[in-house]
Amino acid sequence: MAPLTPLFPVDAEAVSGICGSISIACWVVVFSPQIIQQFRQGNADGLSVQFIAIWLLGDVFNIVGAVLQGVLPTMTILAIYYTLADLVLLGQCFYYRGLRWRDDTAPTSNPIEEADDERTPLVGRPTAGETRPSDWTGLSPAVGHHVTEAAPEERRARSSRLQSAVWNATVIAMVCCAGIAGWLLGGRRGEPADGPDNSLELNVAGQVFGYLCAVAYMASRVPQLLLNWRRKTTEGLSMLFFLFACLGNATYVLSILAYEPRGCVDGSCHAGAVYGRHVLVNLSWLLGSAVTLLMDLVVLAQHLVYKTEDEDDDDGGRVSPGEDGWEGRPILERGDTDTR
């Protein structure tokens, strides 16, 4: 009895094709969350202009390098699409902030809330870390005991965080499914070529622009990381933007590394030599994607750290049991009360 043929054959070329399709799907939608968020909030203060400008330069180098090196036409088309999306983001930044290349380090505040008028209380609301005298009436036998429940704002914030996590996971899963479906509909994998693999030929000019592209991609994240560090927040950034970038870079690296060696290189038909030449040809794109993946993970880590600090500050600003003496005691315990 002949062995059953698997419905989804998984080999190096299949893994490369699946990862490549998922990467393309991620890069098609990567800019959409940030563009939509900036449009909804009416500003682009959370996004570094220098980040987008350097990224745009890297995409231009990517187009030139892809054409010279002779990569797949799909990658060249995607590089052109990246450039157009960069221009949209850059245009948004200039529209909301004016023609300024310098990033604002202070988080955006609402001037309407800061302005004082006749309705502004003389004693402001407690700030983060500030303690106000507490009402101890709940401990007095003359007053009924009241159980304090969690604030509605806290419950809403917890529910909002859960909904956001579920939404992000759902969108990412849908994009991955779209990438896999694209690979299946595209014929899964192509037939191996009978002749020599032309993709293993080094083009000096293409390699130069490939490394320039990698350097630009790596350098582009530095202004954004510094801006987040100076502002101590990632407010204004869409985490889906960086999640798609991380997934797109990770699957792109896997699509390159999952390679089935064939043919000969410099008179050697050894699989190790052929695979080594394949990695060498794509080394600039591998380095650029791998390093930017790590830097995007740092952005996600910044988001988690600063979000946790903001929540701790909110907890610190709540009223705690009286630490400032007798002002917060119930009136029955005050020494100035007439007990006659």
Automatic annotation (TrEMBL):
Pfam families assigned: PQ-loop (PF04193)
Coiled-coil regions, chain positions: none
Ranges where the record places region Disordered: 106-141, 310-340
GO biological-process terms attached to the record: basic amino acid transmembrane export from vacuole; basic amino acid transmembrane import into vacuole
Signal peptide feature range: none
Membrane topology of the entry: Multi-pass membrane protein
Domain of life: Eukaryota
Location in or out of the cell: Endomembrane system; Vacuole
GO CC terms of this entry: bounding membrane of organelle; endomembrane system; vacuole
Major subcellular location class: membrane
GO molecular function, one term: L-amino acid transmembrane transporter activity
Transmembrane segments: 12-31, 52-72, 78-96, 165-185, 205-227, 239-259, 279-301
Keyword set, alphabetical order: Membrane, Repeat, Transmembrane, Transmembrane helix, Transport, Vacuole
Biased composition (Basic and acidic residues): 326-340
Similarity-based family: Belongs to the laat-1 family.
Classification via PANTHER family: SEVEN TRANSMEMBRANE PROTEIN 1-RELATED, VACUOLAR AMINO ACID TRANSPORTER YPQ1-RELATED
Protein name per Swiss-Prot or TrEMBL: Uncharacterized protein
